[in-house]
Amino acid sequence: MSLEKILSITGKPGLYELKTQTRSGFVVESLLDGKKMAVSLRHNVSLLSEIAVYTLSEELPLNDVFEKMHQKENGEKASVNPKDEKIKLEEYFFEVLPDYDEDRVYASDIKKIVQWYNLLIDKKLLKFEEEEKQKKEKKEKAKGKGEKKAATTKEKE
Questions:
Q1: Is-above-0.90 flag for pTM?
Q2: Is the pLDDT of residue 156 over 60?
Q3: Which positions ≥6 away from 126 have C-beta within 8 Å?
């Protein structure tokens, strides 16, 4: 699943998956506990696909930040705890994204990003292009072997 249907709702913990739209808002499902709830248009909602992190040169989409974290952690959860001290969070984020803008990216932002990353890893919702390419290559190799076997079987007949 891409980040297109994953949202953050101000004042509510965790992340939510967009299920359907209604006249007065939409229905979401919590990724933390699986409970569904209606959200009105009055709530402040952010799609993760629309969030970016300030760097010294540009705004980097959150998905790219997650991909860098994924590469650093080899697909595992973040090595830093979101409840760690501010300095530890900033050191970790500097390792992941060396050119992030320290003046505009606060420790609270880093904490949220780490929490979201860990939740998405737990729910196996983070898929990146490299992984997709590897899966496709494996399928193509398997498919190619299957076709070769079928061709040699037909030739023998």
A1: no
A2: no
A3: 66, 70, 117, 120
